[in-house]
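Hello,

Our lab assistant flagged a job as stuck in the queue for most of the afternoon. It eventually completed. Since we weren't sure the result was trustworthy after the delay, we are filing this so someone can double-check. Below is the sequence as submitted and the structure that was eventually returned. Let us know if re-running is recommended.
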Amino acid sequence: MGAGETRQAIEAVFRIERARLIAGLARVVRNVDLAEELAQDALVIALAEWPRAGIPANPGAWLMTAAKRRAIDALRRDRMRERKLEEIARELEGEFDATAEAIEAAATNDDLGDELLGLIFTACHPVLSADARAALTLRVVGGLSTDEIARAFLSNEATIAQRIVRAKKTIGRAALSFEVPRGADRAARLSSVLEVIYLIFNEGYAATAGDDPVRPSLCLEAQRLGRILAGLAPEDAEVFSLLALMDIQASRLPARVGPDGALVPLPEQNRARWDQLLVRRGLDGLARAEALGGDGPYALQAALAACHARARSAADTDWPRIAALYDRLRAVAPSPVVDLNRAVAHSMAFGPEAGLRLVDEIADDAALRHYAPLPAARGDFLFRAGRLAEARSEFEAAAKLTRNARERAFLLARADACD
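-- returned structure --
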């Protein structure tokens, strides 16, 4: 393997292990910034040693060990906080009596002590605002850049960067333990955890930036966390609703991208390529959620996804039911994005003019001002209404707003089709 290929392999391993590595380190050093720095130090050490010695059999354990050794060195150098840091250093030194296999086993444990889940619950602590909880978790767990998070939040990069810095400082001042809470405390934080997990999933399902339209690894991580939550809260309808929603949507991933790498819209997807195991798992999860009395936002969204999953072809889709579900969702969880999706559903159920009327009602919403799906949806309505020149203008406007290369190419192709 050449030097370039080795570096790519090391960076790929680090991307896979990064979130769990930070979670394990944060639990010990009780500082998210320091945990991120130690994880990055471990990557630097790996880039120096692995090309010579080879990638170890247990790379996650190797990185964790390297990071913890670096932590001990750093803690010993910091004499201003000697008493507290020596206590943490002794805890770390004691862990080196364990084998690398034991360390890795602890890092991959998915029970109540799951370190990654503990990091998410800490990031979703009530001492933080709702926006700060989501931004921080997307940064430290999802590994997204501040720009990508800003796109997901329909915000700007400077605001998100400040939000993350403040969140880290707040957690540090509160001296929180990076563990999964129990009892009433866990129930109180569950809704924000669900929100964060779904944001991570959505970034994987429809990447906001870069060359790839989807990032399946983020979807898989969100689904994994959803299954852990389902084990923690077996009677919570919204947990199973979110898991059902993610499973049904993830079933489409194999058909979302064509052989040329271009994004394939839902009506044009080859449904034979949908993962039927995930479809069945999602429908079963939705049935369990409904049996538990689920009628919240995730239950409604899962019901929407199920409408598509049950249709044998795009022509068989029950659009009037989807439009009615969006009417209910708008009442339960109003947002500009829900309003836009509702307009799309009404356009499919009752004609493009119905969609245009609804989309014109939200066209001036500040949160949608730089949101590419808004002109893209309007372009589709105009195209289906036969107003091709106007449709082309909307598709071109959407292409200028998107930061994803594949999505931009798709929108420009739609613009060219208006000729």
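-- support follow-up --
The delay was a queue issue, not a problem with the job. The result is valid. The chain has a mean pLDDT of 86. The beta strands are 209-210, 403-404.
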